[in-house]
Amino acid sequence: MKFQPRASHFIDGEYVEDTNGAAIEVIYPATGEVIARLHSATPAIVEQALNSAKNAQAAWAALSGTERGRILRRASDIMRERNYDLSVLETHDTGKPIQETTVADATSGADALEYFGGLAASLTGEHIPLGGGDFVYTIREALGVCVGIGAWNYPTQIACWKGAPALACGNTMVFKPSETTPLSALKVAEILVEAGAPKGVYNVIQGYGDVGASLVSDPRVAKVSLTGSVPTGRKVYAAAADGMKHVTMELGGKSPMIVFDDADIENAVSGAILGNFYSSGQVCSNGTRVFVQKGIKEAFLKRLSERLAHAKIGDPMDEDVSFGPMVSENQMNIALGYIEKGKAEGARLVYGGERIERDGYFVQPTVFADVTDNMTIAREEIFGPVMSVLDFETEEEVMARANDTEFGLAAGVFTNDLTRAHRIVAGFEAGTCYINTYNLAPVEAPFGGSKMSGVGRENSKLAINHFSEMKTVFVSMNDVEAPY
Ligand code: NDP
């Protein structure tokens, strides 16, 4: 099998196998073909990975930031050199079109390694004068062993978004990819070792949720960073709380995108396409509740349908293809189930709405109009190519409806009224907001959610605070006064 890795896990600088672990079949979503067979981590493998990360941590943290940063930046260069091969692997792991994976996966991972590699040397504490010559200084310290747990939609990116800031701060990591997409994180681990990362600094073990759970509850672990759904986030957060561990939670969403009647319709349609159909709709920050002001609703829907007709659906390895399959049969059935609910609850099907008759797990890009706030498709995260278009009349009304959700990951507004745009964004209950654009996530900017969508932020300098802690040191230059 062309994509079969040398072994299932990567621990202490090398590939490791334990065939006693439950079988994991890796399936190419475009054909349903098995492209690799792996094994879930046994307790012995979990033990080995945690020991390796624990043993490597002190020496890694003792390197200078410049030295750690150099290794991360070298890894970034290697990832860029191998972008095409890594993208082919990512396309087979996830089903995403090669047109996307060559620009949004290994390249995004490389950006994170480069950015946090660049920051590593500048991570310092501060000096705080107290008067009379006394002072405090702070030392920014690594947390220790960090666990990363990933979802299946952006496996390379998630492995790097968690690994790069963790390693820059002097932590070591055990990363568990989703068992649906286990292949690319192994490549990230290989590349880090090739770039000079000492053994044990970045380990990858495979497994189902139980493996993630055993990592989270282990006392050697200081921090857990999860990308996943809200129900999993709740479980992981609770397990981490028991050991008072640090957490970052990047969870799901049901984000609003508001289009006012003064917006540039072409840009708004582009934003809605990017925010609903890129990666076949399997993006956490998608703006799946598209509120369109009544006066332009039909014009918006007409233009959207015309543009969707140009989506090239097919073999994701074909460079012209812009819309691929969903990641798995299971995820496809979830999306199809929501489409049926949309029809049954009375939403108007404007585009798509069916499985595509070919091998693999293809669902048509689907648009429902006349969706109301209480319909299931407007309330629950679908994580598939299903857009809900809702009408609105006034700014006040749409603001309240946009925020009427337990989620708070992202939100966007399209308007040419400058003051209204900023007023709307100020009112959004969401961590990541967009004005006249949608779904950007460059490494320089903080990314993450409010409310049930998460805790903490990834990317940007803020991520450093989530992977390090401050030690405060009081220094007296004077005699110590005591009452007796
Ligand atoms: P899941 O929540 O099902 O799984 C996420 C990861 O957690 C998987 O690796 C999973 O393993 C693991 N896991 C499951 N149960 C436990 C547990 N009890 N303890 C520890 N780990 C566990 O999410 P999906 O993989 O289905 O991904 C889709 C979700 O991810 C969507 O809700 C989406 O919105 C969200 N997401 C959020 C992003 C963000 O940045 N905010 C970005 C991308 C996705 P296994 O798969 O083996 O069960």
Report the bound ligands by name, code or SMILES.
Answer: NADPH dihydro-nicotinamide-adenine-dinucleotide phosphate
Q: Strand sequence of the main sheet, in spatial order?
A: 14-15-16-13-12-18-19
Helix content: 25-40%
Helical stretch tally: 16
Main β-sheet description: 7 strands, mixed
Poorly predicted segments: none
Could you report the average pLDDT, rounded to the nearest whole number?
A: 98
What's the count of strands? 22
What is the end-to-end distance? 78 Å
Give the CA-based shape.
globular
Helix-strand category? alpha/beta
Structural Rg: 24 Å
Q: Strand percentage, roughly?
A: 15-25%
Describe the structure in your own words:
With 484 residues, the chain is of the alpha/beta class. It has 16 helices and 22 strands. The strands form six sheets. It has a seven-stranded mixed beta sheet, sandwiched between helices. It has a six-stranded mixed beta sheet with strand order 9-8-7-10-11-21, with helices on both faces. The longest helix is centred in the first third of the chain and has 20 residues, at 43-62. It is globular. The mean pLDDT is 98. It binds NADPH dihydro-nicotinamide-adenine-dinucleotide phosphate (NDP).
Could you give the topology of this structure?
Blueprint: E1 9-11, E2 14-16, E3 23-28, E4 33-39, H1 43-62, H2 65-81, H3 83-94, H4 98-104, H5 106-120, E5 127-131, E6 134-142, E7 145-149, H6 155-168, E8 172-176, H7 183-194, E9 202-204, H8 209-216, E10 221-227, H9 230-242, E11 246-250, E12 256-259, H10 265-277, E13 289-293, H11 297-308, H12 329-344, E14 348-351, E15 366-369, H13 376-379, E16 386-392, H14 395-403, E17 407-408, E18 410-414, H15 418-427, E19 432-435, E20 450-451, E21 454-455, H16 462-466, E22 468-475
Helix pairs in contact: 2-5, 2-7, 4-5, 5-6, 6-7, 10-11
